[in-house]
Amino acid sequence: MESTDIAFAGAAEQARRLAAGTISAPALLEIYLDRIRRLDPQLRAYRVVLAESARKEAAAAQTRLDNGERLPLLGVPIAIKDDVDVAGEVTTYGTAAYGPPATEDAEVVRRLRAAGAVILGKTTVPELMLWSFTESLEYGATRNPWDPNYTPGGSSGGSGAAVAAGMASMAQGSDGMGSIRIPSTWCGLFGIKPQRDRVPMSPHDDAWNGMSVNGPMSRTVEDAALFLDVTATTPAADGSFVTAAIREPRPLRIALSVKVPPPSTTRPGRAQRAAVDEAGALLRDLGHHIFARDPDYPPNAVFGHLLPRYFRGVYDDMQTLPHKERLEKRTRAFARIGGLISDRRIAAIREREAALSQRVLSIFDNFDVVITPSTATGPSRIGAYQRRGALTTLALVAARVPYHAMFNATGQPAAVVPWGFDRNGHPTAIQLVGRPFDESTLLSLAAQIEKVRPWTPRRPAVS
To answer: What are the residue boundaries of the Amidase domain, all occurrences included (predicted)?
Structure first.
């Protein structure tokens, strides 16, 4: 294989090639380091590249491979989002307000290392992971490999840009209001927000009042399943997410919905709506039972439930930073609003979570999967929100991405599957929403779509 083909092969295929000896771990790493040197000055997907330590890890991985040791990700280079601790490195959260370097790996990083992964670097985020675009005064703008005039999304925008441009085999992301699914959509990747607590958040447990989770952003469904197998605190129901990903799904009852949770009046764009319709037709041809049905979204969920947890979560994050005065003005304004939300109110909201979930989940009494658009529109231009205030920015970005946050509140798994392109040539996707703890069905269905409508051969302009 050519080096470019190897870079885009995906983590699972690379692991197979490393085990077979058709490529070495140091050689694979150098492919990525070379691509980062060439491409990242334009894209700015990485906040820091850990070249020296990664070379040591790759050499050690190769020794283990030569000795016959086999681990799921032995020698595979993986990128880590800069809201997750890597020992010896600062976790900046996209801000200049950060503290000293982390003394230990976060639990998800520890598990990736235990599976043999080589930690390639830390990817860029918006300040305090606030936005669905990845720009900050401290670190500049991260650009979309499909069109560098546009954002890759956020807050896992650096992870999305790195994988899309072939600068990492796979990347860890986090998702508190769609932050895995949004950049996965606009970067043409598969991404899954797993069930809450499936992948450890330690040492940042209960981030954003239980809204945020860690998960994978990847080239293939198998790659994401492999990430879940090696990081999950509890395994798949049948023991393996990879097994689920390669298993044909049984005929499923699938609900199609383009309804936006109230009070938003956003309407999905033509390409986004068409993706749902086309998915329904494809899945019907594959033997599934397709119906048009909407989840029962509570009318007060956004203002009474989602936003308070979000605002207060950002406020709580700000309290951990030693140099709050260095935060951007817009971030400080956002956090001040969060400070007005009391512990008592948050406790009451959390107590009402079961009722909210029961109402939203009632659609799964009759359906196995719900399919929605992923985003309502394509990405925003770089700099579109400069000099905007906190609430104005929030209102503008929320209109683009209304379909994700509800499922952070319920905690259930949701994945985005690449679909086509909008009239601007930007990737589109559909969102698959599953029953609680049923990532396996989403992986199986997504892999079936991937098989008949493959997206992995697509490569962006900057790659």
So the answer is: 28-443
